[in-house]
Amino acid sequence: MFNSPDWVFSMFAFLGFLCCMIPLPWHLEAWNTGTCLYMIWTGLSCLIQFINSIVWRSNVINWAPVWCDISAKFMIGTSVAIPACSLCINRRLYHIASVSSVTKTRAQKRRDIMTDLAIGVGIPVLEMILQYIVQGHRFNIFEEIGCYPATFNTPLAYVLVFAWPMVLGCISAYYCVRTIVELAQRRAQFMEFLSMNKNLSSSRYFRLMGLAGIEMLCTIPLGAYVIYLNATAQPVLPWISWANVHFNFSRIEQIPSVAWRTSGPAVLSIEFSRWFLVVCALVFFAFFGFADEARKNYRLAYVSVAKRVGLSTAGTVSTGGSWSTGSKSEMAYNSRAGIMPVFVTQRTEQKRDSLTSFSTDISIGEFNDAKEIPYSPTETATGSISKESLPSTPVDGQTIPLPDTPVLAGSGPTHGVTAVPRVIVDSPESLRNSIDIV
User: Fold this and answer.
1) How far apart are CA 165 and CA 83, in angstroms?
2) Residue 214 host element (H or E)
3) In whole angstroms, what is the distance from residue 320 CA to residue 329 CA?
């Protein structure tokens, strides 16, 4: 890795910048301050290293003094900012696991954000200021590396600069252990809190815990190793005075690659400091770049870009874990449940007139061994059936007598109820409801 061509590091540095910046918008929506600060510090550091590796690929010319002043200080802040952001994440996870109530007031949320900003931004800025005490000169320029901070190797530098990452890593380890203990004791209450929090799911919680745990496990041993490299790469000089440390402060040391690559500890220290940033970016993307919310936002971004350039989005996976083809909303597939496609057909009923409400195949035949005469809509002009076309005898061959009518006093002769039989035709129900018998 350390002996790879320059373009390899440039490619990975820019890739690390993209890996941190792409998921940033939807993490801002969750108001997870520690995670957002981690992404910003790591992404901007990768971008600075990418620019430096391009500008100073084969030279040590001081092209941009102001840029080097800013980038060198930013690198000092980043060395503390990444462990500080890990501390913010571990601290937040601990407070979630040990929460006494499932709701937080607006004032409590505001106080948590301010505390995270004080840790993730305040401590790195303070580190930049304190580094000036042991800053021997303006900055260094290493060929193939670019701008690099200059710290006078004195015992005070280990207290003000080199020991901060390891101290923050130890505090993160304390919160990490406490979080595991609280999870074991308050599991039911913890799950209740996650169900009430729409911005934090159990999956995201444990991914944050994995990221913070890896950072914590790497920060302590690597911080100790950096202290060892600084103590052995060059002699440790005693602190004499402020004037001695800052003598000829405006000078800029320009070191070609043939000079600094001859020292093994120097190569290891310089290369490790810049590759570590790329590894942090890739580790973060491994945890959050393939999550459900990330894939959903990738799909939304693809659809938005495709619509702008005129590409078809047919067959694009929808945001709810299902896919559809074209505009046929009746075809759907649930990728999580593994269910086969279900085809839904919508049926609509259309009201028709009495003539077309039944098929012409229905016929009213004559009974008493007579031939069936098929019904034809053309037999009548008005679409109705006359009395003469009905059979003369009932379908079942029986007559249903009517009840006797009361005899009125003084009334004349009456006809018997059996004189005029009432005939009920046993025709289909649809025929009875839709045909007017005249």
Assistant:
1) 6
2) helix 202-233
3) 14
Asked whether the predicted pLDDT for residue 433 surpasses 50, the reply is: no
Pair 87, 175: CB distance under 8 Å = yes
pLDDT-derived band at 201, boundaries 50, 70, 90? low
Residue 333's CB is within 10 A of a number of other CB atoms, namely 17
CA angle 254/260/265 to nearest 5° reads 135
Q: What is the mean pLDDT of the chain?
A: 74
**Cα separation, 422 vs 13, whole angstroms:** 99
pLDDT value of position 147:
94
- pLDDT at residue 333 in the model: 41
CA distance 36 to 86: 11
Question: What's the rounded Cα separation, in Å, for the pair 429 and 256?
Answer: 102
CA angle 397, 402, 404 (to 5 degrees): 145
Cα 175 to its chain centre, rounded Å, is 27
Tokens at 28, concatenated: 């801002």
**Alpha carbon separation from 276 to 70, 218, 226, 241, 329 (Å, rounded):** 20, 10, 12, 34, 49
Q: What digits encode the pLDDT tens for the residues 43-76?
A: 999 999 999 999 999 899 999 999 999 999 999 9
Given the DSSP bridges, would you call strands 331-334 and 322-323 parallel, antiparallel or unpaired? antiparallel
Hey, which residues does 342 pair with through a beta bridge? 332
- C-alpha distances (whole Å) from 392 to each of 102, 230, 415, 433 are 84, 119, 21, 21
List of long-range contacts for 106-112, beta carbons under 8 Å, 24+ apart: 109/31, 112/33
Amino acid (one-letter) located at 196:
M
Cβ–Cβ under 8 Å, residues 204 and 291: yes
CA-nearest of 196, 207, 29, 171 to 99 is 196
pTM above 0.90, yes or no: no
343 backbone dihedrals φ, ψ, rounded to 5°: -100, 115
- Listed in sequence order, the residues at least 6 apart from 140 whose beta carbon sits closer than 8 Å to its beta carbon are 72, 147, 148, 149, 150, 252, 253, 254, 255
The 10 Å Cβ neighbour count of residue 409 is 4
- What is the C-alpha to C-alpha distance for residues 100 and 186, in angstroms, rounded to an integer? 10
